[in-house]
Design goal:
Structural class: alpha+beta
Number of helices: 1
Shape: rod-shaped
Strand content: 15-25%
Largest sheet: 5 strands, antiparallel
Distance between the termini: 115 Å
């Protein structure tokens, strides 16, 4: 005749709960790492797209030679424009009222003058009565809404055109 044992060889509920807690910590850490990786990748991609847009505007600025004070970007057919929204999908200038898909960048080209430049101790600023000095330098700034809609991000390029005499 065989004797039955009353001792159980299974796991207790406490052991199962501890195992589940450890599993949840590991999975939570993996999720956080993956989401941060995605965020960093998207941020790098947005900066690369903005830099491409700024460089194309710079090349177009070099071709036309200058841009008037009120104009903020260079549109189709090398025409200065105030419609400075750019689709990330094709990097073409679209109207300010148009919808951008999937992401929208805003381009602004402004002329840098001596009054907007920071001077060092060895190079003092010009007298305040003097008119702004034309440095023939342009600031090409591309801004967009940052990941998650929290604030804005931007890329700026400065370009000084050489005078041809």
């Amino acid at each position: 005749m065989m004797k039955l044992r009353h001792k159980q060889n299974g796991d207790t509920i406490i052991e199962v709960m501890i195992s589940l807690a450890i599993l949840m910590l590991v999975l939570g850490g993996a999720y956080y790492t993956a989401s941060q990786s995605y965020r960093n990748d998207r941020d790098s991609q947005e900066h690369a797209e903005a830099l491409t847009i700024a460089q194309s505007q710079l090349e177009e600025l070099r071709v036309i030679g200058s841009i008037a004070a009120g104009e903020q970007c260079i549109g189709a057919n090398l025409t200065p424009s105030n419609a400075c929204k750019v689709n990330s999908s094709d990097t073409t200038i679209i109207g300010n009222g148009s919808q951008c898909t999937p992401y929208c960048y805003t381009v602004k080209i402004s002329k840098v003058t001596a009054t907007s430049v920071t001077y060092s101790v060895t190079q003092p600023p010009p007298p305040s009565a003097a008119p702004p000095v034309d440095l023939n330098t342009y600031d090409i700034n591309v801004t967009w809404t940052a990941i998650g809609g929290k604030g804005t991000d931007s890329v700026s390029l400065y370009y000084r055109m050489d005078s041809i005499s």
